[in-house]
Amino acid sequence: MKNRRKDPSASFRAIARLGLVALAVIGGGGVALSLNGGSQPEEAKHVPPALHDVAATPGKQSLVLAGGCFWGVQGAFQHVAGVVSATAGYAGGSASTATYEMTETGQTGHAEAVEIVYNPKQVTYGQLLQIFFSVVHDPTQVDQQGPDVGKQYRSAIFPLNDEQAKVASDYIAQLGKEGAFGRPIATSIEVGKTFYRAEAYHQDYVYNNPSQPYVYIYEQPKIEALKRLFPEQYRERPVLVADQAR
């Protein structure tokens, strides 16, 4: 998938030649993607909030999530009010393999992930998980998100402590019991994993490349779904990695 997704010069014709162009329908019913092969992804939906949450503490808190291409995960959370930063990176493997080229082999244990730093006085861990499961990705797809296939695109939560792990586990069980999705949730909870920051050219990619075909088809709809389903938590101006470096 490397040349199709990561090459900013990719064209719709090149994507179509690979048989991976999707029909993106953006509207009241969410986003529907039709792919050649594989199961139809779940549409964006407002899933129930978590019954339990992480206790708020003074200062900032963090969480690490993986839900397919880190461009879209980062891009969506950058528009959530209360998020202080969202950084693209890798989690699940070792420091020696925390590069894009190695992660793309699918053999490193890494997933494309995003580290989210947030203000718990404005948004909670549970609310961020609700957004993650509602609009950021399809948690029922196994080692895949849309056209991207491989363990590096798996749905995963990387808890930073026992409390985060318990809340995440309880929430997945809750959504399963309530039948929030038409298929079983495939999200894994992977404890004790370190997050490694991705290369600079991956940061703020959705913001910097809104008309890139992959971004336009697969990533921008996540932001639109966030705005539509969580208007009270949506902010128009994203918090960018580039702004923090100044």
UniProtKB/TrEMBL annotation:
Domain Peptide methionine sulphoxide reductase MsrA, residue spans: 63-214
Gene Ontology MF, one: peptide-methionine (S)-S-oxide reductase activity
Active site residues according to the UniProt entry: 69
Top-level taxonomic group: Bacteria
Reaction catalyzed: [thioredoxin]-disulfide + L-methionine + H2O = L-methionine (S)-S-oxide + [thioredoxin]-dithiol; L-methionyl-[protein] + [thioredoxin]-disulfide + H2O = L-methionyl-(S)-S-oxide-[protein] + [thioredoxin]-dithiol
Keyword annotations of the record: Oxidoreductase
EC class name: oxidoreductase
InterPro entries documented for this protein: Met_Sox_Rdtase_MsrA_dom, Met_Sox_Rdtase_MsrA_sf
E.C. code: 1.8.4.11
Role summary: Has an important function as a repair enzyme for proteins that have been inactivated by oxidation. Catalyzes the reversible oxidation-reduction of methionine sulfoxide in proteins to methionine.
Family: Belongs to the MsrA Met sulfoxide reductase family.
Name of protein: Peptide methionine sulfoxide reductase MsrA
Biological source species: Rhizobium altiplani
